[in-house]
Task: inverse folding
């Protein structure tokens, strides 16, 4: 090791003894290759990094199944956010409920109101992630079913109870509500329940996909920006130097 | 060591922003032509270091490298850290734009402190400069962890509890960064003594 680095340490001993401005020229000629060496270090680090996991962004994902909302939290590294408080807010920012994630980083609750919700996961030490469930998620899964049940209820009573005035209206409705037939609303609910069940693994897959962390392109892009900035600053500095 | 968006209160964010702006101004004044490349490379180091995830301990932690950067750059570490954090926020969604000032201060203040505390020891004997390198890497992370506790103190969480948690989670990082920093100082002393502070 020592022998390997000896020639360069001899060289770099040079500029320290010379004046400041001459040193700057020496740096350009002598130091640059060494800076190149250092940048190899940085590159080696990136390669090391690309194989390892990612940390520090908290990803929350929430989806609706029937009237139950499932919440899953993970760190960008894929590590589950365990035993961490979850807060659920409505669209006005009022706190609806709080809970804690279990050992799998999951939390679920029954949604009483089918409106937009914001799920906030507090992962500790200043880490926080959030996910907004749009009202449309409930519309297809929950409230459609509920309003369907509500509207078919009174109609059924009307069909069996009253006779004279509403007979015409009730008469047209009777075939749909009579036992043996499946109403549109029931059918819809059954299909949605089945779809939710089938789609759950897909949802999980999407969550995992979302949490796969920064890509090589992003890493190289960031480093590119930094080197570009160095170029800009060096250019400005060199112009200032010339004008002096 | 990034605080996420929406965690801190407004006064903390504003104070952090103002301190970071002042630090960046001082740092930029200290960067002359000969130091530009060095600042850039160390900025890239910080940018990438946060992706090196250390799976030891109860929480999810990564390398920070502010001790090394502070030791080598002094005040110029502030703009270097700022640029790295900005790009991390944009590319990796670590931290965020509104907390950029606070996160910069969290990492840069210990860096500059380490420069003044341990920088002068770099030119002493081998044992001393290796110890100074280790201490720089170790204490920079420790101070950052304490500052995280301080920043979170103003938003409901108690200082002692959070600080204990953050310091505990980062204990492996402190030791690893101490070793890395000591190794880097030793390496630079052999290969490139000009990079070390005067």
Result:
């Amino acid at each position: 090791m020592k022998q390997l680095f000896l020639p360069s340490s001899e060289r770099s001993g040079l500029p320290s003894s010379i004046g400041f401005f001459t040193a700057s020229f020496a740096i350009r000629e002598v130091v640059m290759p060494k800076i190149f060496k250092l940048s190899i270090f940085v590159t080696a680090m990136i390669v090391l990094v690309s194989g390892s996991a990612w940390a520090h962004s908290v990803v929350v994902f929430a989806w609706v199944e029937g009237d139950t909302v499932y919440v899953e939290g993970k760190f960008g590294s894929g590590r589950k956010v365990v035993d961490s408080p979850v807060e659920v807010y409505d669209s006005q920012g009022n706190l609806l409920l709080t809970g804690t994630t279990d050992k799998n980083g999951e939390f679920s609750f029954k949604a009483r109101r089918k409106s937009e919700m914001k799920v906030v996961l507090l992962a500790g030490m200043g880490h926080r992630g959030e996910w907004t469930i749009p009202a449309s998620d409930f519309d297809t899964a929950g409230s459609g079913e509920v309003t369907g049940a509500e509207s078919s209820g009174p109609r059924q009573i009307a069909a069996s109870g009253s006779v004279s005035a509403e007979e015409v209206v009730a008469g047209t409705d009777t075939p749909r509500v009579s036992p043996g037939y499946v109403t549109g609303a029931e059918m819809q609910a059954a299909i949605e329940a089945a779809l939710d069940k089938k789609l759950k693994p897909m949802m999980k897959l999407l969550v995992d996909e979302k949490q796969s962390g920064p890509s090589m392109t992003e890493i190289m892009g960031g480093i590119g920006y930094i080197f570009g900035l160095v170029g800009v600053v060096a250019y400005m500095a060199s112009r200032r130097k010339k004008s002096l | 060591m990034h605080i996420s968006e929406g965690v801190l209160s407004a006064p903390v964010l504003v104070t952090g922003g103002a301190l970071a702006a002042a630090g960046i101004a001082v740092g930029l004044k200290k960067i002359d032509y000969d130091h530009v490349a060095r600042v850039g490379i160390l900025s890239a180091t910080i940018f990438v270091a946060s992706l090196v995830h250390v799976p030891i301990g109860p929480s999810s932690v990564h390398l920070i490298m502010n001790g090394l950067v502070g030791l080598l750059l002094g005040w110029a570490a502030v703009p270097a850290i700022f640029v790295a954090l900005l790009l991390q926020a944009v590319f990796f969604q670590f931290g965020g734009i509104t907390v950029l000032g606070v996160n910069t201060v969290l990492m840069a203040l210990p860096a500059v402190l380490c420069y003044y505390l341990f920088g002068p020891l770099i030119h002493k004997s081998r044992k001393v400069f290796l110890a100074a390198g280790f201490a720089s890497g170790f204490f920079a992370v420790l101070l950052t962890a304490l500052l995280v506790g301080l920043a979170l103190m103003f938003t409901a969480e108690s200082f002692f509890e959070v600080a204990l948690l953050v310091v505990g989670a980062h204990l492996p990082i402190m030791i690893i960064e101490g070793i890395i920093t000591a190794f880097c100082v030793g390496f630079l002393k052999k290969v490139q003594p000009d990079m070390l502070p005067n």
About this structure: The mean pLDDT of chain B is 87. The longest helix of chain B spans residues 159-191. Chain B touches chain A through 53 residues (CB under 8 Å). The two ends of chain B are 29 Å apart (CA to CA).
